[in-house]
Structure formats: structure tokens, C-alpha cells
Amino acid sequence: MSALVCILNADNMLSYPDFRAFERSFQLMAQVSGRSGRKYKQGKVIIQTYNPSHPVIVDVVKNDYLAMFKQQLLERQKFKYPPYTRLVLLKLKHKDPELLNKAADELAKSLRKVFGKRILGPEFPMVSRIMNYFIKHIMFKIERGVSSAAMKTKLVEEIQKFQMQPAFRPVKVLIDVDPQ
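The chain above was modelled as a monomer; its predicted structure follows.
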């Protein structure tokens, strides 16, 4: 008797909006696949997907971790994600969505003047409202080798200037370095 493991709708994992989605998908599918066969017995794995030629699905089927790893490093280098950069996530919160949108746009605009293309957003996160607070994110990428201390100082100065504006004073700004 062999064991059967089914991975339903693998596309959901692969399309999750996070730069680590492919890595996590590979890890989960490989781990679950390993559960199908035990000690001298071969198991069977069925992966339900609309895209069987997706590189991660192909690497899982081949059990080729190294190919997935190399591809992920190339992608991360190309699009400037860790380990080639450090990420700083700015979370803006306020109960009024209109004020939050204005504040997030204004902060992103002022940050772009200082940091240029290192600034992404603002955008709503997957969960954009918690306990009556609306949330917006701004992502800041810092390349390795650049002085993190100098960047941090500039970032804090810009946030302080932003919070000195009376209209935006009630908007909370939280800083998350290397968010998970």
C-alpha cells in the first residue's frame, strides 16, 4: 500500500504577493511530497495547478532545490530584494482613510525626493484595516554596502519633517526593518 498526497490549488501559494512566495511554495510542496513515501515504499503526489510548467512546480517535481535556489537569487538580485538589499517597511495608520491616503502619498513623495527609486508604494497591505485603523505601507530598499546608519538618519529626519505638518501629526508611522 502506498501513500497518496494531494496538493490542491498550488497556484494560490505561488501567486501570494510576497517576494518569498516561490521559496515558501517550493518548501511546502517538497515537505508535503516527502510525506508520501516512507521507508522502502514509494508514494504518489498529485499537484493541482493551472500552470504545470511553472518553474517552481517543475523544480518540485524534479526535486531540484538547487535550480529553484539559483533562480530565486537571480530574481532577487534583478529586482533588488534580500539578500542583496535590506528592506524597511513604513506602516502608516489612521482612522480616516482619506487623511491616511493623503499622508501616505505626501510621505512617499518626500521620500522619493531624497531616496529616489528605493521607495515603493504607498499601497494597502493584504489586511488594510485593523481595529478601526486603516493601514498603508511604503517600502524602502537599501542596497548592501551603502551606509545603513546614514540612510536611517535621513529616513528618520524625513519622517520627523512629515510629522511636523499639522495635518499629518495624528497619522502614526511605524518602522519595521527587515520585515518578515
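Residues 4-78 form one domain.
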